[in-house]
Amino acid sequence: MTPRFERMCVAGVGLIGGSLALAARQAGVVSEVIGFGRTARNLEIARERGLIDRIATTPADAVAGADVIVLAAPVGACVGLARSFAPHARPDAVVTDVGSVKGTLVNALEASWPTPGNVVGGHPVAGSEASGADAARADLFRGRACILTPTDTTAADALARVRALWLAVGARVEEMPAAVHDELLARVSHLPHLVAYALVASLDDVRAGGRVALDYAGSGLRDTTRIAASPAELWRDIALANAPALGRALADFRTALDRLDALVTSGDASGLEAALTVARAVRVRLGGTST
Amino acid sequence: MTPRFERMCVAGVGLIGGSLALAARQAGVVSEVIGFGRTARNLEIARERGLIDRIATTPADAVAGADVIVLAAPVGACVGLARSFAPHARPDAVVTDVGSVKGTLVNALEASWPTPGNVVGGHPVAGSEASGADAARADLFRGRACILTPTDTTAADALARVRALWLAVGARVEEMPAAVHDELLARVSHLPHLVAYALVASLDDVRAGGRVALDYAGSGLRDTTRIAASPAELWRDIALANAPALGRALADFRTALDRLDALVTSGDASGLEAALTVARAVRVRLGGTST
Questions:
Q1: Which of A58, A224, B65, B223 is the most exposed place for a label (fewest CB within 10 A)?
Q2: HSE (CB half, 13 Å, CA atoms) of A291?
Q3: Are the Cβ atoms of B187 and A206 closer than 8 angstroms?
Q4: Entry pTM
Q5: Does A276 contact B250 at a Cβ distance shorter than 8 Å?
Q6: Residue A1 above 50 pLDDT?
Q7: What are the pLDDT digits (tens) for B193-215?
Q8: Which chain A residue is nearest to residue B226, measuring alpha carbons?
Q9: Strand stretches in chain B, DSSP E
Q10: Which of B264, B270, B277, B285 is most worth mutating to test chain A (most A CB atoms within 10 A of its CB)?
Q11: Which of A203, A205, A255 is best to mutate for the B interface (most B CBs within 10 A)?
Q12: What share of chain B in percent tops pLDDT 90?
């Protein structure tokens, strides 16, 4: 009994917004998708690829008649978009987002929307370093988690409709408080991104004996830093919006790094092997290696 | 005019040693390969898979008649192996290794070998987190760099023979001083490994709201920490043998991380975006992403 949306507005037709639009259309849960965004060329690609039916050029046009509005822009742009949409939206429209940070964003969205009960925070845990409508794929969410973060204000009906949308595109939907989401994602996503960016930044232009260090990079460095190819603007917003939890994750990471460093510096072979063995076991449990 | 080796001893028939044995056999540059190592089961796999012709159970048996001896054990074990082989080896045998650290290791190998001119330090830059004879593949070195680090002591003939061996298995061979190798590899390999181990170590058993953080890991964290599934003993040895260069790489990484952290903490959106944009450009130049 999947609810059918008449018209979906997707604001930000990139990897996530574009994939959701495509997957929702293919699943038959939405009749029409309107794309809205900053970059005309990206919207044209989205239309050419059939992710969206039509490009809107004004906020009023974007949300006119829409019964679901998906904010899929960088986290820092979502509240501005919501404010620009609010005067033109149907009173019963459901507003949801796909941001990697939920607490501050969902609060701000509720504050900016005339019917705050219709705001449902969401985060499909399915990113990659790729971006843009070019990268969108209908199967992006299949089997992946989508975390919804309803508040005391959230209307049960709005939550049910957003849940049904994500289920229809193949996601495993899970609810949790926004603060818990932000703490978990700071650890498994925001911290690794900051570390990967720092790692490549520290290698920029490093030379030894007249040779450029990065010319000797193997698959290990490439894997370790792949997510540093993610759009800077996206991760600027996420880091800033989740700074306190990211700070806690960074502190724990520094403690772990300092500990390994101290074992190396002191030449403690058995202590170092023990610490690396524990870390390795954690990584092997995580899966997705050839070990 | 590839020199043909009569008999190759491979001490440590893992990913690298096993792949070299297999590739050298397939390339027809070696007539017979003798495997030597600590783990009987691994050696049996190597024989069953056709990586080696025969298993040696004593150092004397391992190197008897061998004209090339490949030390493919963890860095910390190589000098002990060389010492155990020396009394039994042919005087004209070439001794080479595949260690990820060269300076201290090559010096120690030269000091432990009766004909130090026959010692040629080597490092095929082609690892992965996989290990053991199971993981060996004939194409592992194809198109990959193999760095040789001859010293003033190295005999030209020995160097030429080792160079020919790596060329025969498809590697791009490059020579440089051991100190330069160690500085470069500290940056692009040893540092990322330590960072990856620290990252997973810092996530072990982290929970929020009763949920296990690692249950929410996506492909980003998996990529970033894949190399932390590498054998602990290998990386213990490498980190300890290259501690000074690794320390310099770590210092630069900490500086880069502190800078990003300061931008996040101070809420400097434009400064953070600029720093992430620079880092992203470095990563994109490195290649191997879907961006």
A1: A58
A2: 22
A3: yes
A4: 0.92
A5: no
A6: no
A7: 999 999 999 999 999 999 999 99
A8: A289
A9: 5-11, 30-36, 54-55, 68-71, 94-97, 119-120, 122-124, 145-148, 172-175, 207-208, 211-212
A10: B264
A11: A203
A12: 94
The two beta strands, B5-11 and B68-71, are parallel
Q: Is the dihedral of CA B47, B48, B53, B57 positive or negative?
A: positive
Bridge partner list, A36: A11
What is the bridge-based pairing of β-strands B30-36 and A172-175?
unpaired
* Chain A contact present for B175, CB below 8 A: no
* B168, B161 contact by CB (below 8 A): no
The closest CB to that of B221, out of A188, A217, A229, belongs to A188
The pair phi, psi for residue A156, each rounded to 5°, is -60, -40
Amino acid letter, residue A191: L
Please say if the pLDDT value at position B237 is more than 50.
yes
> Which H or E run contains A11?
strand A5-11
B100 touching chain A per CB within 8 A: no
Per-residue CA distances from A4 to A1, A36, A67, A290, B48 (Å): 9, 21, 10, 42, 59
The pLDDT of residue A49 is 97
**Cβ atoms of residues A127 and B218 within 8 Å:** yes
A247, B211 contact by CB (below 8 A): no
CB contact under 8 A, A201 and B278: yes
* Residue B38: how many other CB atoms lie within 10 Å: 10
d(C-alpha B73, C-alpha B82), whole Å = 11
Q: Is A277 exposed, middle or buried, given 0-12, 13-18 or 19+ CB atoms closer than 10 A? A: middle
Structure tokens at A219: 């698959």
The answer, for A143 touching chain B at a CB cutoff of 8 Å, is: no
Helices (H), chain A: 15-26, 40-48, 59-63, 75-85, 103-112, 156-168, 178-185, 191-203, 219-225, 232-241, 243-265, 269-286
For residue B256, which amino acid is it?
A
Q: What is the pLDDT of residue B233?
A: 94
CB atoms inside a 10 Å sphere around CB B249: 28
Which tokens sit at A270?
A: 């058995």
Query: What is the percent of chain A where pLDDT is above 70?
Result: 98
Beta bridge partners of B212: B207
A107-to-A67, A98, A150, B119 alpha-carbon distances in Å? 21, 14, 11, 67
Lowest-confidence segment of A194-208, B2-16, B187-201 by average pLDDT: B2-16
Do A222 and B249 count as a contact with CB atoms less than 8 A apart? no
| Helical pair A103-112 and A75-85, crossing angle rounded to 10 deg | 10
Residues in chain A: 291
* pLDDT tens sequence across B156-193: 999 999 999 999 999 999 999 999 999 999 999 999 99
The rounded distance, in Å, linking the Cα atoms of B128 and B184 is: 18
